[in-house]
Design a protein that fits this description.
This protein folds into four domains: 102 residues, Polyphosphate kinase N-terminal domain (Methane Monooxygenase Hydroxylase, Chain G, domain 1, Up-down Bundle), CATH 1.20.58; 180 residues, 2-Layer Sandwich (polyphosphate kinase like), CATH 3.30.1840; 171 residues, Endonuclease Chain A (Endonuclease, Chain A, 2-Layer Sandwich), CATH 3.30.870; 205 residues, Endonuclease Chain A (Endonuclease, Chain A, 2-Layer Sandwich), CATH 3.30.870. Helix 15 runs parallel beside helix 16. By secondary structure, it is of the alpha/beta class. The chain contains 20 helices and 27 strands.
């Protein structure tokens, strides 16, 4: 008997962090794509900058913490935390260089060609512009600024995380007979503090924060008619910085930006009140250890040395940048008024295909399961599901998990209204949703004040599942209606993220939904589940069982394949199982937007696996899993990626799609994603991603295709005179529908 192959060798895996950097390169490629509207390209470059900020604040910060405590355990790719930091440092410096190459050499010239000018430096202003900028500074900026000097009696101030600041080297002006009052305040201050008087008070360094409450870019008069000219706020402050230090001469002035460790360490077991503990930790996020310093590449060396010493930052963590710091301002610039021809037409989500437009959602859900495909179809049915439940006199209870919601959430308002209407309302608000902690604390308190029963998540676990249960009394008894989704209950991001949802009144799923909420509120685990598969206790084993089942079918000479779509794949056990299935002959096609630690094309290991990533106007967020199962096809959707945190450390829900027509449509959605030859990049055997090309086939962008299909379905519904529609899955029959 031959020895069993080891599918867990480190050389079979990519490092998670380096794979993420490759994903950000794919976003950067969109900014470089000359076929896209110019202002859309600005948006993508902005996204790469905000992505990188979060990567440093969380992932890099976590690795630095490991190194500081001498943690040397290797990751699945065989890299220690120290080795990972070294490789990340090289890769991110290269990435930042390419970001600014894109900005300086591609986008700025293209903007100029379209008569949109960004002033690089205040010295480039003409007289009229200079006067305008000075006036703007005096009226709008100066009252907001707080200059902070650093000397022997005033320590270096705390610099907030991600804030843009301006540092200056100063020297005191010489007194003369006409300036005898200059410096009197400082001399008085020195005498009262017992400091030795000096003829001239020297201040080596001063800093001022660029106000985040003011617009980052300001439109100013243009030198040529027809141009739109902008200058960045920091340039306005630099030009007038001498007005902040009247008694001193400004020797040099440069902007800088600090990134800090924002990875919260929450002692849940010891916290008497999780809400209060998270509030306490949130305050620390602004003042965590400095892990990255951004400065202009021409910065004065003495100023840089001061920043290095005061911020205790290493040379390798300094990014010298050829251009404006913090490119996230480009997101707002991409939305400037009056240049709609330079951006793609805004897509309006269409009515849900599987709904007939009638107001009573519960009657329609009772008639048949309803599939939702956002943002191609509107998120309104999900909002209406909760809104109608809040007002419906026959509804007895509403239970919902909330991970991320919008700042003015209609769902929150409906939940509060339901409680005020005397319904039993239970809401699990996940306080540990990263960067939404503060927002969720506010919502949790408002819901409590309205009379809702609020659960603040579970100790040691994040509740990442997306589920709503409505309990309604009807003529034939108590009926449970359930919404399950792959994305958050956020009506704002639902316009930007591709997600799937299911509305059902299946008795088996309703019973499971009740069991989920009982487990969350009272730790009561059911003896068995009917349809739902729940992490962290059951989901990993079920995925492995389904993967291994395909392997066994292949070994038996039967047809076997797996098709799956997710955000990230980095779980070693799942990847090893996929390798084993591939080696047995299972065809595996994966659509993975971001991190992928699996390697393709390894002889005898992953030759049957393909991986593609789609980056487009919408952020690909849905999770879909399709197993051939010897012809008895199984299709699931859910909230979990194939990552250790989703399978072992979160409450996640995987739910089946069993209605034949709905299942066929979900399979078709996967097929279209796998046929995309305009926005897809395929993972190569050398670890790079290569854009998929039509190569003679009809052009197909999955996102554009789904937009067209949603619009067509809405038009067909308007044209029909029937009270009930015949529901058909999407078809890719007419090449004209797919030609972008």
């Amino acid at each position: 008997m031959s020895e069993k192959k080891n599918f867990s060798k480190p050389e079979y895996f990519y490092n998670r962090e380096l794979s993420w950097i490759l994903f950000n390169y794919r976003v950067l490629e969109e900014a470089q794509d000359k076929t896209l509207p110019l202002l859309d390209r600005l948006k993508f470059l902005s996204i790469t900058a905000s992505n990188l900020d979060e990567f440093f604040m969380i992932r890099v910060a976590s690795l630095k913490d490991m190194v500081q405590v001498n943690y040397t355990k290797k990751d699945i790719a065989g890299m220690t935390p120290q080795k990972q930091l070294e490789e990340i440092n090289k890769a991110t410096h290269k990435l930042v260089g390419e970001q600014y190459e894109t900005y300086n050499k591609m986008l700025l010239p293209a903007l100029k060609k379209e008569h949109i000018l960004i002033i690089d430096h205040h010295e480039d202003l003409d007289d009229r512009q200079s006067k305008y900028v000075d006036s703007y500074f005096h009226s709008e900026v100066y009252p907001v600024l707080t200059p902070m000097a650093v000397d022997s009696s005033r320590p270096f101030p705390l610099i907030r995380n991600k804030s843009l600041n301006i540092g200056a080297i100063l020297t005191a002006k010489q007194h003369d007979q006409n300036q005898k009052n200059n410096g009197q305040f400082h001399e008085l201050y020195m005498s009262h503090t017992g400091k030795k008087k000096k003829k001239h008070v020297e201040i080596d360094f001063a800093t001022v924060q660029v106000p985040s409450g003011l617009p980052r870019f300001v439109e100013i008069p243009s030198a040529d008619e027809g141009d739109k000219t902008f200058i960045l706020l920091e340039q306005i402050i630099e030009k007038n910085i001498d007005k902040l230090f009247l008694n001193y001469e400004v020797m040099s002035v440069f902007p800088y930006r600090v990134m800090r460790n924002a990875d919260l360490t929450i002692e849940e077991d010891e916290a008497a009140d999780l809400l209060m503990e998270i509030e306490r930790q949130l305050k620390k996020r602004q003042w965590g250890e400095a892990i990255r310093l951004e400065v202009e590449d021409s910065i004065d060396e003495s100023l840089l040395q001061t920043l290095k010493e005061e911020l205790k930052i290493n040379e390798v963590d300094i990014f010298k940048i050829n251009g404006p710091l913090d490119l996230t301002f480009l997101m707002k610039l991409s939305g400037i008024e009056g240049r709609d021809e330079l951006r793609s037409q805004k897509y309006i989500p269409q009515p849900a295909k599987w709904l007939n437009g009638e107001n009573n959602l519960f009657a329609q859900i009772k008639e048949h399961d309803i599939l939702l495909h956002h943002p191609y179809e509107t998120f309104d049915p999900v909002v209406d599901f909760v809104r109608q439940a809040a007002k419906d006199k026959d509804v007895l209870a509403i239970k919902q998990t909330l991970y991320r919601v919008s700042s003015n959430s209609p769902i929150i308002a409906s939940l509060a209204e339901a409680a005020e209407n005397g319904k039993q309302v239970t809401v699990l608000v996940e306080l540990k949703a990263r960067f939404d902690e503060e927002n969720n604390i506010i919502w949790a308190r408002k819901l409590e004040q309205a009379g809702c029963h609020v659960i603040y998540g579970l100790v040691g676990l994040k509740t990442h599942s997306k589920i709503t249960l409505v309990v309604r009394r009807e003529e034939d008894g108590i009926i449970r209606y359930v919404h399950l989704g792959t994305g958050n209950y956020n009506d704002s991001t639902a316009k930007l993220y591709t997600d799937m949802g299911l509305l059902t009144h299946q008795k088996a799923i309703g019973e499971d939904a009740t069991a989920v909420f009982n487990m969350l509120s009272g730790y009561s685990e059911p003896a068995a589940w009917n349809k739902l598969i729940v992490a962290p206790l059951w989901l990993r084993d079920r995925f492995l069982q389904m993967i291994n089942r395909e392997r066994d079918f292949a070994l038996a000479g039967k047809r076997a394949f797996i098709r799956a779509k997710m955000n990230s794949l980095c779980d070693a056990q799942i990847i090893s199982a996929l390798y084993e299935a591939s080696a047995a002959g299972v065809k595996i096609d994966l659509v993975i937007r971001g991190i992928c630690c699996l390697k393709t094309g390894i002889p005898g290991v992953s030759e049957n696996i393909s991986v593609r990533s789609i980056v487009g106007d919408f952020l690909e967020h849905s999770r879909i899993f399709y197993f051939h199962n010897n012809g008895f096809e199984e299709v699931y959707m859910g909230s979990a990626d194939w990552m250790p945190r989703n399978l072992d450390k979160r409450v996640e829900i995987l739910f089946p799609v069993e209605d034949a027509a709905l299942k066929e449509e979900v399979i078709h959605i996967l097929e279209i994603q796998l046929a995309d030859n305009l926005k897809a990049r395929e993972l190569q055997t050398d670890g790079t991603y290569q854009r998929v090309r039509p190569n003679g086939k009809e052009k197909l962008s999955a996102q554009e295709y789904f937009k067209k299909m949603a619009v067509r379905a809405a038009q067909e519904r308007k044209e029909t005179t029937h009270s009930h529609r015949t529901f058909e899955p999407l078809r890719h029959e007419n090449p004209e529908n797919a030609d972008i």
